[in-house]
Amino acid sequence: MHLEEKKKAVDELAEKVSRASVIISTNYGGLTVAEMTDLRRKLRAQQIEFRVIKNTLARFAASKAGKEELDKIVIGPTAVAFGYGDIAIPAKVLLEYIRSTKSQLKISGGLIENRVLSAAEIATLATMPPKEVLVARLLGRLKGPLYGLVSVLNANIAGLTYVLSARQKQLEKGG
């Protein structure tokens, strides 16, 4: 690779690094071309880019993008998954692929914004429900106490209404 090609590759990689919401680094040693193609197809279906990168170029790109922490997870033969949407989806797809195919692909770590994640944290991330479900759960928990307060306040008024109604019926029968 000539110097100009390397500069272009670093610029392109820096753009991907800065744009990605999650970056997952993998060690692809031992994967066949067919396995790599199958994995790329599954990731592409979820709008996730998967690229084999040179570690030195990745370090330059990370520095250029302001995410120097990336060099902590770029070790050995590296392929990186760039996720641009929900941060859990790339982890789910990669771990499902590893589990279903018993692949030799190993997750080295991940990067969310400027936080480095271990392989175990990536596995935990993969078990998380989608963002929409988490938001719905949060809203449900926030609404719970409000509904309880409304019920308690309404119970006194409803009780008074029942007592007054019963008294009215009593007076009508006795009068």
List the keywords.
5-stranded antiparallel beta sheet; 175 residues; 2 domains; elongated; 6 helices; alpha+beta; Alpha-Beta Plaits
Descriptive report:
With about 180 residues, the chain is α+β, with helices and mostly antiparallel strands. The protein folds into two domains: about 5-130, Ribosomal protein L10, N-terminal RNA-binding domain (Alpha-Beta Plaits); about 130-175. It has six helices and five strands. A five-stranded antiparallel beta sheet has the order 2-3-1-4-5. The protein is elongated and about 105 Å long. The chain starts with a helix and ends with a helix.
List low-confidence stretches.
Answer: none
The structural domain count equals: 2
The second-level CATH architecture of the largest domain is: 2-Layer Sandwich
Element-level helix/strand string: HEHEHEHEEHH
How far apart the termini lie comes to: 105 Å
Please write the CATH class name of the largest domain. Answer: Alpha Beta
Beta-strand share of residues: 15-25%
Give a quick account of the main beta sheet: strands, pairing sense, barrel closure: 5 strands, antiparallel
Order of strands, main sheet, comes to 2-3-1-4-5
Query: How many DSSP-defined strands?
Result: 5
Fraction of helical residues: 55-70%
Radius of gyration, CA atoms, in whole angstroms: 28 Å
Quick check: average pLDDT?
87
State the secondary-structure class: alpha+beta
The best one-word shape is elongated
The tally of helices reads 6
- The CATH superfamily of the largest domain appears as Ribosomal protein L10, N-terminal RNA-binding domain
Classify the fold: give the CATH topology of the largest domain.
Answer: Alpha-Beta Plaits
